[in-house]
Amino acid sequence: MPKVPVPKVDGARLVAFDVIRAVAEKDAYANLELSRLLREHRLDGRDAALATELVGGTLRLQGSYDDVLDRLAKGKLDPPVRDALRLGAHQLLSMRVPTHAAVATTVDLVKDRIGHRPAGLVNAVLRRVSERSLDDWLTNRSLAARTSHPQWILDALAEALARPEELDALLAADNERPGVVLVARPGLCDPAELGGAPHPVSPYAVQLEGGDPGAIPAVREGRAGVQDAGSQLVALLLARAEVDGRDERWLDVCAGPGGKAALLAAIAAERGARVLANERQPHRATLVAQGARAARAGLAGVIAGDGTRPAWAESSFDRVLVDAPCSGLGALRRRPESRWRRTEADVTELVPLQVSLLDSAVGALRPGGVVAYATCSPVVAETAGVVQEVLARRPDAELVPATSYLEGIADAESAHLPGAVQLWPHRHGTDAMFVALLRRT
């Protein structure tokens, strides 16, 4: 019988390359594509960890690697070849992979996935890359190249931070692989059940040292979930805010994929309240329902609808959450491809939608009720700018100091909207979440 050829390239590197190509060609989300391919190739343990590091690290530092590669490669690089070189550069410059192993495996990857023709070029370029450290390659290069952030994002983050002395720390935090944080949904799970260490931003947050969260029974059963501590705080601030009178009907206007809705539903169930979860996209609405299955006692239902054209009556809710679609520039460490996918034009297009969603949410409140407006972006136009515009157009709304509901969290006030909360990865170990509270008067 003829022998079956054994692939020279290990599964982790094949998966990493395929994920990065899917991000470039299909606008895929790296985390979702990675999870799918890890399951498909049945990779776990060290192989899954290697693939995860290759994908996340290569995408985070893509701008720095391109700065090096463009000085070494003559002529224009085809996109698949460039992606293979980025993977090789990451192993040489940011991982402890020996030069011969990094070069040889990348050349074999190119032969397997692209063809033999560019193999010589890849071999030659990577051997040149290996001659210097990343710091040496980036000496005297631009801040954008050294920190692997597009210039427009550097400018937007610097404006939002409003502390020039902290910019380097923020950019460095964006390039660090975030730890896995779990949420123990109240009434369903005790944080001690999850292991790990408490996170100071949320009483329900636990940070894991490592391992597969899906192997934890509480996560599999929906009593706990993977959720950044900053996202947990968004739900907590809405739940902590004082409302006048009745407190039974809550609304999550943009609920997909469902993490905040599940936490809100668990909190609501303990208080005898219920949450109506709305999500515009039907497939994401399905994810919301699945994610909140363990907290269904606090869930009034899940509907698929447009939050700017509400299916609910005016003045009918006591608490409303608007976790608005945004540029996502506060989660660059967790979604590294966003920095290469987003443009300034995206922010310009998103702001009118954000204003419309918040305006509609205020209208959904009864007098005395409270709305939380949140984004996983610190960009001024998407945060303070949106809230200020809605306050200017709605005399029946007033800003409530969200900072008064922080418990043990220091230095978290927005530099552009006093009373609003702005978290930062380098200060608080979270995504750069923004939260403002408004009351309908």
UniProtKB/TrEMBL annotation:
Q: Which InterPro entries match?
A: MeTrfase_RsmB-F_NOP2_cat, MeTrfase_RsmB-F_NOP2_dom, NusB-like_sf, NusB_RsmB_TIM44, RCMT, RsmB/NOL1/NOP2-like_CS, SAM-dependent_MTases_sf
Positions annotated to bind S-adenosyl-L-methionine:
254-260, 279, 306, 323
One GO biological process term is: RNA methylation
Matching entries from CDD domains are given as:
AdoMet_MTases
Location of the active site: 376 (nucleophile)
Please report the stretch or stretches of sequence annotated as the SAM-dependent MTase RsmB/NOP-type domain: 153-441
Q: Which Pfam families match?
A: Methyltr_RsmB-F, NusB
Keywords associated with the record: Methyltransferase, RNA-binding, S-adenosyl-L-methionine, Transferase
Q: Which GO terms describe its molecular function?
A: RNA binding; RNA methyltransferase activity
Q: Which family does it belong to?
A: Belongs to the class I-like SAM-binding methyltransferase superfamily. RsmB/NOP family.
Its job: May act as RNA methyltransferase.
Q: Protein name, please?
A: rRNA cytosine-C5-methyltransferase
Protein species of origin: Nocardioides marmorisolisilvae
